[in-house]
Amino acid sequence: MGYASAAKQYKKNQIETASPKQLVILLYEGAIKYIRLSELALENKDFSKVNTNLQKAQDIVTELMVSLNHQDGQNAIASDLEAMYSFILNQLLQANLQKDQEKMVQSRRLMSELLEAWTSI
Predict the structure, then answer these.
(1) Whole-angstrom Cα distance, residue 32 to residue 63?
(2) What global pTM score does this model have?
(3) How many Å separate Cα 114 from the centre of its chain?
(4) Could you give all domains of the chain from N- to C-terminal order, each with its CATH number?
(5) Residue 74's pLDDT is what?
(6) Full pLDDT tens readout for the chain, 121 residues
(7) What share of the chain is helix, strand, coil (3-state, %, to 5)?
(8) Nearest 5 degrees, angle CA 76-CA 81-CA 87?
(9) Distances (CA, A) of 48 to 37, 62, 104
(10) What pLDDT, on a 0 to 100 scale, did the predictor assign at position 25?
(11) What residues have CB less than 8 Å from 61, skipping those under 6 apart?
(12) Measuring CA to CA, how many Å separate 47 from each of 35, 36, 43, 44, 83?
């Protein structure tokens, strides 16, 4: 089994055995990674990779939005997170359309702050 195959299997096992909290953390980490890869691709003027990686980050943020639980007395938290995710998603869309690195950086920083909050829970 090659390294890439082993790494893929490890990641699959990590996801399949993760708790809901760990899954959210993995999603944040994935979004941050793809935004950073977009930033690097933009520096190299590889617009195809910018687009691909920002779309992956957008997909992750969308998944975070649809997975929010607006019940169980947590409406205020879910609503606040939904507003934050919506803002980040819009920033990522604009960053992709305009190839705007500052919007990418801002989105990555917000995702990093959310990741910090989740890991401290």
Answers:
(1) 14
(2) 0.86
(3) 10
(4) 19-120 (1.20.120.340)
(5) 62
(6) 576 776 667 666 666 667 888 999 999 999 999 999 999 999 999 999 999 999 999 999 999 999 998 786 668 888 999 999 999 999 999 999 999 999 999 999 999 999 999 999 8
(7) 85, 0, 15
(8) 130
(9) 12, 21, 15
(10) 94
(11) 31, 85, 88, 89, 92, 111
(12) 13, 14, 9, 8, 28
Q: How many CB atoms lie within 10 A of CB 14?
A: 12
Yes or no: say if 95 and 54 are a contact pair by the CB < 8 Å rule: yes
Token reading at 73 = 């007395």
How far CA 27 is from CA of 2, 57, 86, in Å, comes to 25, 9, 16
